Amino acid sequence: MTSDTIADPRSPVARPRRRGPNLEKWGWIYMRLSGVVLVVLIFGHLFVNLVAGDGIRQIDFAFVVGKYASPFWQWWDVLMLWLALIHGANGMRTIINDYVTHHGTRRVLVWAVTLAAAFLILLGTLVVFTFDPCLGVTQDSSLWDMCQG
């Protein structure tokens, strides 16, 4: 092949194989698995909150207090939060890798998405597991009697 010959576009490109885990493959697998689990978690969440019982009329502060009193629902919501945020961040990472051509800009954006997702996961997890309906309740609050018992 001479220097003025163009290679066949359908011929495989010989790239050296990188050592270590194939992170793109595992990211692809994660997106498929987390998507299936998220469908179950989200529809379960919607059913319990909007269909079961009195439907949407039941959702108020007392409903949230009762729901977060159960470790089952705490873990359900935290799992939904973790999977959704990691799923979304991985999707954003893929979009950034596909469309941002400048290496430095791509790196900054991927780090920004990663830090934002990590911060929201941490904050959301703290909210779910440290939720205290009696925090800051005063005597003139409608929650005063509930929090005294």
From TrEMBL:
As for subcellular location, the record says: Membrane
Q: Does the keyword Cell cycle apply?
A: no
Q: Does the keyword Iron apply?
A: yes
Q: Which residues cross the membrane?
A: 27-52, 72-96, 108-131
Chief location category: membrane
In terms of InterPro entries, this protein maps to: SQR/QFR_C/D, SuccDH_FuR_B_TM-su
Q: Which Gene3D superfamilies match?
A: Fumarate reductase/succinate dehydrogenase, transmembrane subunit
Q: Which UniProt keywords apply?
A: Heme, Iron, Membrane, Metal-binding, Transmembrane, Transmembrane helix
Q: How is this protein named in the record?
A: Succinate dehydrogenase, hydrophobic membrane anchor protein
